[in-house]
Amino acid sequence: MLILQLFEGYLNTMLSNQPLNRFKRITTSGAYYPEIDGIRFLCIVMVMLCHVENYVRLFIITSGDTQFSLIAYLMQNGGMAVFAFFSLSGYILSLPFLRARFLKTAPPSLKKYFLRRLTRLEPPYIIALVLSFVAFVYVLHSYTFNELFPHFLASLFYVHHIFYPHSYPLVLAVAWTLEVEMMFYITLPVLLYLLYKLPTVYRRLIMFLVILIVPWLRIGIFSYNNFLFANIPYFLAGVLVAEHIVLKESPLSFLPASIKPALLACLFFVFFVTGYSPLSFNHVGIDAILLYFVFILIIIDKTGYRFFANKYIATIGGMCYSIYLTHYAVISFVGRYIHYRFFNENFLGNLFMYSIIFLVPAFVAGAIFYLLIEQPAMKKNWWKRAGNKAIMTAEVQD
Fold first, then answer.
1. How far apart are the first and last CA of the chain?
2. Percent helix / strand / coil, the chain, rounded to 5
3. What pLDDT is stored for residue 104 in this prediction?
4. d(CA 360, CA 43)
5. Range 108-115 contact pairs with CB under 8 angstroms and sequence separation of 24 or more
6. How many degrees, rounded to 5, is the angle at CA 84 between CA 83 and CA 90?
């Protein structure tokens, strides 16, 4: 009986909120909206499944056209989730500026705005970049130092898309999205200043026209996804949702609440099914507007709140940056030692097995990276405290 009681107490402790609190996202304002991290969870899982599907298709079951399998294709198209990340950035980053514009709060300090981006995002990115560079050059011997170092410098300063426009970054392949994000961070204050000088009708008309027309105007080098021009509709979709939030508008309030969960599921399905050949359906031109309505349903109408705000879902979603930076390396590392067909030629069966094999260590590695690297960088003015600690240590040693 005593053993059972001890076991029960141990189980209750393990399942309590305490372990989860250790992984909780630290925000500048202190305000926390779990549904936002719930969206991040869905996005990072879809991106990871996309890379798992690519691995199975390229190295395990190389025969056959997997595009005719809807499940496999949805996973293959999971990379579309990076555009939802862009919309989230548009939403989150524009909120303080729009609150100052409409609610007359103190305007954000541009110095603090850029310093926060620098101190919050750079440490995890630089460390992931250095680790990847060392692995490629000194562990895997995939490149020589001289071959890879120019790519390392280009990625370090977020200009790989400029010097190597026809390829994704060699050192950290997933970093192409971070280059797009950085371009948006830099241009956002000017963009908002210009847009919000206009009357509401003209401003919203321009934003909707950009969202709807730009996808059809991709020309030459600007047609590549690793340039801001090609992705500005996704960011603007998020800005529009932020404006609705600040002005307390609910564009879909006329819809019955009972149909909104089904509508949300349909919008997600349509978003990820783009290009599925058996349906002869390609809607790349309306992806941004789909995300606009998805965010209205989740963020404004709280559709699916129980799922997106679930403490486990939101906690994992809060670590998405670390998981994003590390998951591709984990898949590549684990994949070097596994080339086994668990279900012969059954693509979906093997896909299921490899999803488990890759995702579990990817989540674990991402969580460790988050605790050691990213979470400390979330703390406001962390570098000042680190500097003070170093000074105090030196004084003690003296």
1. 58
2. 75, 0, 25
3. 87
4. 16
5. 110/189, 113/189, 114/185
6. 95
Which positions ≥6 away from 98 have C-beta within 8 Å?
192, 196, 239, 242, 243, 246
Is residue 300 assigned to a domain? yes
The rounded distance, in Å, linking the Cα atoms of 333 and 364 is 14
State the Cα–Cα distance between residues 348 and 262, nearest whole angstrom: 26
Q: Which amino acid is at 161?
A: H
Domain that holds residue 113: 52-120+178-393
Q: Which two tokens stand for residue 65?
A: 């056209």
195 part of a folded domain: yes
Contact in structure between 123 and 373 (CB atoms under 8 Å)? yes
CA–CA separation, 114 and 125 (whole Å): 16
Residue type (1 letter), 207: M
**pLDDT of 2 above 50:** no
Does pLDDT of 64 surpass 70? no
**Three-state SS at 51:** helix
The answer to whether position 354 is within a domain reads yes
Q: How many domains does the chain have?
A: 1
Q: Which of 287, 262, 259 is nearest to 273 (CA)?
A: 287
Per DSSP, 108 falls in state P
Contact 102, 247 (CB under 8 A): yes
The residue with tokens 């699916």 is 304
Q: 16: Cβ–Cβ under 8 A, 6 or more apart, which residues?
A: none
Residue-wise pLDDT for 153-177, tens only, equals 999 999 998 899 878 899 999 999 9
pLDDT confidence of residue 8 = 44
C-alpha 336/C-alpha 364 separation (Å) is 18
| pTM (two decimals) | 0.89
- Residue 196, C-beta contacts closer than 8 angstroms, at least 6 positions apart: 97, 98, 101, 203
Among 379, 376, 294, CA closest to 35: 294
Other Cβ atoms closer than 10 A to 154: 20
Tally the residues of the chain. Answer: 398
Q: CA-CA distance, 41 to 115, in Å (whole number)?
A: 26
Which pLDDT belongs to residue 3? 41
pLDDT digits (tens, 9 = 90+) for 122-158: 999 999 999 999 999 999 999 999 999 999 999 999 9
In 3D, which of 296, 178, 317 has the Cα closest to residue 239?
A: 296
Domain-embedded: residue 202: yes
Per-residue model confidence (pLDDT) at position 13: 40
